[in-house]
Write a structure and sequence with these properties.
It is built from no helices and ten strands. With 142 residues, it is mainly β.
Length: 142
């Protein structure tokens, strides 16, 4: 998909819409080489009357030492097919060993998205502003 523009998304209508295609829980393979079926999860709640939503992202525990992994909470806005978000807090992991405290990332981030497969698939694209590396992920409703 290098240098290919993603198609315009399908989405619900109206600010605060609960039927916007990106609203819900989404999962994709999380990238654990030892356990490729473990999943990365994103959740996007509906937008409120001010056009702001709440959500989170949570990666899999590839090491097998935690019963929960850090949950990165964020607020977000949507313009067209672009979601802009900022992290607000981190729910710390629960592990069988002591792990360092996970800090809340600072700054603003954005992804573009496309919904497909009757709104059961969410394709996101992000570019790392430091490295220029583009990442495309395909999520299914979880």
């Amino acid at each position: 998909m290098n240098d290919v523009k993603l198609a315009d998304p399908t989405a619900g209508t109206g600010t605060g819409s609960t039927n916007a295609c990106y609203v819900g829980t989404w999962k994709t393979a999380g990238g654990c080489t030892s356990a490729p079926t473990k999943q990365l999860t994103y959740y996007f709640g509906p937008l409120n009357s001010s056009g702001v939503g709440q959500g989170y992202s949570q990666g899999p525990d590839c090491s097998g030492i935690c019963t929960s992994t850090p949950k990165f909470n964020f607020t977000y806005t949507v313009v067209g097919n672009k979601i802009t978000y900022s992290f607000t807090s981190v729910d710390q992991p629960v592990c069988s060993v002591t792990v360092p405290t996970v800090q809340t990332p600072s700054g603003s981030y954005s992804i573009t998205y496309t919904c497909g497969n009757n709104n059961n698939e969410l394709v996101t694209e992000a570019v790392n502003i430091q490295t220029g590396v583009r990442t495309v992920l395909t999520f299914t409703r979880g």
